[in-house]
Design goal:
Length: about 800
């Protein structure tokens, strides 16, 4: 029944081919008009679930204290230390220039030249608070005094000045415009400021989250180049596969239009492009080319058959019949496979992470566009184009190396060795899948770049001299005013800092407790044993008040809020590993949360904890999502095949592919992150196509021939061969990302290539072995009893259909 409906549909498309093409062109113009609405979105919030505790605490910290987008600039003299007039002038100018940027959070721009960076000392009159660097020293004595002021205040050592005094840092914090978030804009402005100070006397390095995201953004902007490379690679594979103009061009036309339509649809509904979606056009193009290959392969078969059976017909009529017959046979399975893949990707919209939702909408819409175009525009266009030339048809008849290998494989899979092959395949899958035990959910923006890249070189240079280039914050919150002035709270903060600084990868911490201890020591004639928190809250309040008489209340804005009800501990790390930060955060919570007075809470936030939230969502959401997609595939396959066993035959191989996907990641040490998490979804969304095309073709052949071996050979040398072309096209399309020099893309490429290999193997070998071993009724029920007895003819007697 389905075949008849698709046959009638194809006949209508050919009858009204010019109208069809006109409608498609109009749709393309309409969707294309929305492309201008697309924008690159680097907003951190799109990467994380908004209801995660780390995200909530980060929003509080960002609103009250800032510190979400910290950037560190290191000025390193090529000779001597920083206590030189020309070096100090450069630091002062960089400080001033950054303060003038509209994106800068001025109270979080710190260097020894900042107004709020003060020298605290005691005197006979009380407390003396002065700027560390108000004017550039002109004499050796003045320079020595500056050096002494810095060394008298340990909070500045390892954060603003390196312990050996041979490097200085400017710590800056920025607000990113959420209406058009771009870190590259900030980096460009910083580079301009730095370039004005660069000369033969200094090296200047930059690091921090804005730099990491800017490099990510820079690589994103190169994606059109890789997309173009993927097009050329896929076209080459198409030509080598079909040796024809139509075989090379028409699948690419489908692919490019599918990407164009899906991008236009995203612009129409207001979905932005982001780091994850930049590679999705290659996915859509590859999948679209895959569907086109399947129907094109059948088109050549039907053209060959019709030209032999009805040779008296004109070439134009033969061409139209071949188009109709190919859609009648492949249309139902293409519709089912495309629908399953599209719905599977759309289930990603249930994720609580925006970039994953966007990926699901983008990929699902691209596959729906492919279905529409392959069922309408391409047959209409093919009906207008000249029929294939004789050499194209003859090329399809010729059996090459791949055909011989597939025939040999078919003989083994349809014979008594099938159960053994199935068992060996399962054993191999178990060995590979066992690698999933070693997989870790981790994310590191810096590790997305190569070891010798500028971003990694600069990061190492700063980490070697200072406390770290990555920041997390511990937020201490009370319900009452002046909670933070309580010595019990301050002592807990001080102990927390001591614990943090004893941990590997933690280079420096800063808090209001450091300032209070420094005030106490200064008021006790610099005695070391008074570098501690006073016992009385009234004394703490008195010291802080005395500070404001010569200093400024805003000097502490980075550490405590106005009414002293909340405070943060700045923690500088030498790594941006989310796994490390998560472990550290859990240890801190277990150790110190109970030490705070009743009503005072401790929680972690910042850009790195936000990424942890994203990874947590991926880790637990991945299991949920794989289950969702597998359930969708099972239900739809069962309905289409009218058999629960049929649904299992489609779904089980996909679960095996996902298991091997995770296993490969574990064995290769590839972490589960924002990029690699998409490959499991691809394994199900694309793998279902392979299973369904082969199942439908095998069922067609077994019902036509009544012979297991012949049906296996025919299905493998047609749909199976097309599956290999598709897998090769997708793998080759993504392989161009291996040349990107960006680990986010290269890891994704490696996993997609591995997934395509596994998907093709499972569809061609594993599924065929399952079929021969269990002989499911849903595939054999319409054949006669002789078929179920599997009385095979010798291989030489089989008439292979091409």
């Amino acid at each position: 029944m389905a075949h008849l409906w698709f046959k009638g549909f194809a006949e209508k498309i050919i009858q009204y081919r010019w109208i069809t093409i006109f409608i498609v062109v109009l749709c393309s113009i309409f969707l294309g008009s929305n492309l201008m609405n697309l924008q690159i979105d680097m907003d951190q919030d799109t990467w994380v679930p908004q209801d995660h505790p780390y995200v909530k605490s980060t929003k509080v910290i960002d609103r009250v204290f800032g510190g979400r987008n910290v950037l560190i600039i290191s000025v390193v003299p090529k000779s001597g230390d920083i206590y030189q007039t020309k070096i100090l002038r450069k630091i002062q100018q960089i400080q001033s220039d950054i303060e003038s940027l509209p994106e800068a959070i001025k109270h979080n721009i710190l260097s020894i030249a900042a107004k709020k960076v003060k020298d605290i000392r005691g005197s006979d009159e009380g407390l003396v608070v002065k700027r560390v660097l108000e004017t550039i020293p002109q004499t050796d004595a003045e320079m020595a005094a500056l050096k002494q002021r810095v060394n008298n205040n340990p909070i500045y050592i390892n954060s603003l000045v390196s312990p050996d005094g041979k490097a200085a840092a400017i710590i800056a914090d920025f607000k990113i415009d959420t209406s058009k978030p771009s870190y590259q804009i900030v980096k460009d402005k910083i580079d301009t400021i730095i370039n004005r100070q660069l000369d033969s006397s200094v090296n200047i390095y930059t690091a921090g989250l804005p730099i990491d995201f800017a490099w990510f953004e820079k690589h994103m902007m190169k994606m059109p180049l890789f997309f173009g490379s993927a097009i050329l690679i896929i076209m080459l594979i198409q030509y080598l596969s079909f040796r024809s103009f139509q075989g090379m061009i028409l699948p690419i036309v489908t692919a490019i239009l599918s990407v164009f339509w899906s991008l236009g649809f995203m612009g129409l509904i207001g979905v932005h492009m982001d780091g994850m979606n930049t590679t999705t056009p290659i996915l859509i193009m590859s999948v679209a080319a895959g569907h086109a290959i399947q129907i094109l392969k059948r088109y050549y078969e039907e053209y060959n058959r019709v030209s032999q059976d009805q040779a008296q017909l004109p070439a134009k009529k033969i061409n139209q019949l071949a188009i109709v017959n190919s859609i009648a046979h492949v249309g139902p399975v293409m519709f089912v496979a495309g629908l399953i893949a599209s719905i599977s990707f759309y289930t990603l919209a249930t994720y609580d992470v925006s970039v994953v939702k966007h990926f699901g909408v983008f990929a699902g819409s691209g596959i729906m566009a492919t279905l529409i175009l392959e069922m309408t525009f391409i047959p209409a266009l093919r009906a207008i184009l000249p029929p294939p030339k004789t050499k194209e048809i003859n090329s399809e008849k010729q059996k090459g190396w791949l055909d011989r290998q597939l025939l040999s494989t078919a003989n083994k899979l349809s014979g008594p060795k099938a159960p053994r092959i199935l068992g060996i395949s399962l054993l191999a899958v178990l060995v590979i899948a066992s690698g999933s035990y070693f997989i870790e959910a981790d994310n590191s923006l810096k590790n997305y770049s190569t070891h010798d890249s500028e971003v990694r070189v600069h990061d190492r240079a700063i980490n070697q001299r200072f406390g770290g280039t990555n920041t997390i914050y511990f937020l201490i919150e009370g319900k009452k005013k002046d909670t933070i002035k309580d010595p019990r709270v301050l002592n807990t903060i001080s102990k927390l800092q001591a614990y943090l600084e004893s941990q590997p990868e933690v280079g420096k911490t800063q808090s209001i407790a450091d300032m209070v201890k420094r005030l106490n020591q200064a008021m006790h004639n610099e005695k070391v044993n008074h570098n501690s928190i006073p016992d009385e809250q009234s004394l703490v309040a008195q010291y802080l008040f005395m500070y404001t008489l010569s200093g400024s209340p805003q000097d502490f804005d980075s550490y405590v809020n106005n009414d002293y009800s909340s405070a943060v501990v700045w923690t500088f790390l030498k790594t941006d590993s989310t796994q490390y930060a998560k472990t550290l955060g859990q240890a801190v919570s277990e150790r110190f949360a109970s030490q705070l007075p009743k009503g005072v809470t401790l929680r972690m936030g910042g850009s790195l904890p936000q990424t942890i939230a994203g990874n947590d969502s991926l880790t637990y959401g991945k299991i949920k999502n794989v289950g969702q997609m597998a359930l969708v595939v099972f239900i739809l396959s069962s309905l289409i095949l009218r058999s629960l066993v049929g649904g299992l035959f489609v779904t089980l191989p996909l679960i095996i592919v996902v298991s091997t996907n995770f296993g490969v990641m574990g064995w290769l040490g590839v972490p589960l992150d924002m990029g690699t998490m998409t490959t499991a979804a691809m394994a199900i969304g694309i793998g279902a196509d392979y299973e369904l095309y082969l199942l439908f073709r095998f069922r067609e052949e077994i019902q036509r021939t009544g012979n297991l071996q012949q049906a296996t050979r025919n299905s493998l040398t047609t749909s199976g061969k097309a599956v290999i072309y598709v897998a090769l096209s997708i793998a080759a399309g993504y392989a161009c990302l291996l040349l990107s020099g960006f680990a986010f893309y290269s890891r994704l490429a490696i996993m997609v290539i591995a997934t395509m290999i596994a998907s093709a193997f499972v569809a061609i070998v594993f599924l065929r072995a399952m079929t021969a071993t269990f002989k499911p009724r849903f595939m054999f029920k319409d054949t006669n009893q002789a078929i179920t007895q599997m009385s095979l003819k010798p291989a030489g007697e089989v008439n292979v259909q091409q």
